[in-house]
Amino acid sequence: MEIYEIILKNYNYWIFIILMFTGLYGVIAKNNIIKKLIGMNIFQTSIILFYVSLSAKLDGTIPIITETDKHKPDTLIDAANYMNPLPHVLMLTAIVVSVATIGVALALAIKVYRTYETLEEDEIRRKIASGYTGEN
């Protein structure tokens, strides 16, 4: 197999890797709190997309047995074609946690801005070291 075939066959994994490292770069390298939060959100989204992609199955069906399926004995035996709903349910929970985390982090960023009048980490550290309390 050529390298191009490997890359094209697994393009979704390369997208996740690029997104993950983009988010990680944003969290580590940026000094602005909002930029760090955006990087964290990109990182969380890449992990969610990764797990959903892993659980996808080509030609898979939903694991629901209808009344017409109950009368066909071969559909009950052929459970290998069903998709596992557990990863999708867990990722829905992860999305809710991600939204809540971003909401709380943005509220804290607003509080930090109101207290220190900046969102740059270096300036906040400098103001804390100099004894700045934010009160006039």
> Count of helices?
7
Please tell me how large the radius of gyration is.
Answer: 23 Å
Main sheet, how many strands, which sense, barrel?
A: none
Strand tally: 0
**CATH classification class:** Mainly Alpha
Round the mean pLDDT to the nearest integer and report it: 87
Alpha-beta content class: mainly alpha
N-to-C SSE series?
HHHHHHH
Strand content: under 5%
Structural domain tally: 1
Low-confidence stretches: none
Based on CA inertia axes, which overall geometry fits? elongated
Portion of residues within helices: over 70%
- CATH fold topology: Helix Hairpins
Question: In angstroms, what separates the terminal alpha carbons?
Answer: 68 Å
- Second CATH tier, the architecture: Orthogonal Bundle
Q: Your description of this structure?
A:
With 136 residues, the protein is mostly helical. The chain has one domain: Helix Hairpins, CATH 1.10.287. Helices cover 72% and strands 0% of the residues. α2 (11-29) packs antiparallel against α3 and α3 (33-55) runs antiparallel to α6. It is elongated.
